[in-house]
Amino acid sequence: MIDPIWNAVEVFWDRVDDLAWGALLLGISFHVLRLLAVSRAWQNIIAAAYPDKEIRWRSIVAAVFAGVGINAIVPARGGEVVRIFLAKRSVEGSSYATVTSTVLLLGVFDVILAGSLVTWAGVAGLLPGLDKLGPSFDFRWAVDNSRETFIGFLVVLAILLAVLLWFSEQIGDFKQRIAQGFTALRDFRFYLRRVALWQAVDWSCRLVTVFFFLSAFGLPATLHNVLLVQVSAGLASLLPISPGGIGTEQAFLLYLFSGQVSNSALLAFSVGMRLTLMAVNAALGFAAIFLTLKTVDWRAHMAESPR
């Protein structure tokens, strides 16, 4: 998986001089705006769960930035742990169970929209079979070793069940704390106005970001192509074995855009956009961690934090 990605990085580097830098900066700007919209939606979810607490937006922004920053360099979405830790740390008297469930509620909107886009692509016959994807595909080993993958899945499931049972023993009101994170759904008008609306802004900014990145790399910036890129990003996020799911995203883009543009131009775009956003996320994330904790060693703070 590493060699194809490295080759794509070299192709991107060769085309740096041809970039439309104005469009690239606009794409980065809308990416940052989308993260701010996500943080506002999450702040409102947490505020609904803890109505008697002050939920500072800047603290939630820092948590969101830190999460995407760690995800930029650590595979399997390890940044979610840091995001939850910083959010819990910013709300006095909060619990990990409740804060984690607010993240789950935040993800409901994303799952519905991403699922709708993937369904559209599937119905339209745009998605490839597994045999069509190249060596960059993150799931390649799992597909070729289905028996080992199934056993590994059962082991992970057993571990998660054991952890869940342990937490339920340690925390008497575990179920109540989980349900507390979904408080925003009890008032559906509140959810639509204070959560879903901001997440709609998030998704609008995602699409505009892709539009400007396509323009920056000289590719056809149409709504259809923007949606194809978003479908690829959604599929890559399912199991991002490589940081940012870059391998899977590259594999899907090569298939979805086949015949529209040259492979070299598409490789430059797919890796260039992902590396640019990873760099932006990493810079935002580690700046947020440093400003919040006065150090980038978040693991020491997590070890000292009470459950």
SSE blueprint and pairings:
Layout: H1 2-14, H2 21-49, H3 57-71, H4 79-90, H5 96-123, H6 140-144, H7 146-170, H8 174-180, H9 188-216, H10 223-236, H11 246-256, H12 263-293, H13 298-304
Helix pairs in contact: 1-12, 2-3, 2-5, 2-9, 3-4, 3-12, 4-5, 5-8, 5-10, 9-10, 10-11, 11-12
Instruction: Write down the overall geometry.
Output: globular
Content-based structural category: mainly alpha
Mean pLDDT: 81
The topology string of helices and strands comes to: HHHHHHHHHHHHH
Stretches where pLDDT is under 50 for at least 5 consecutive residues are: 134-138
First-last Cα distance = 38 Å
Describe the structure in brief.
This protein is mainly alpha-helical and 307 residues long. The protein has one domain (2-304).
Explain the overall architecture.
This protein has 307 residues and is mainly alpha-helical. Helices cover 74% and strands 0% of the residues. It has one domain. The protein is built from 13 helices and no strands. α2 runs antiparallel to α9 and α5 (96-123) packs across α8. Mean pLDDT is 81; it is low at 134-138.
What distinguishing features does this structure have?
307 residues; mainly alpha; 74% helix
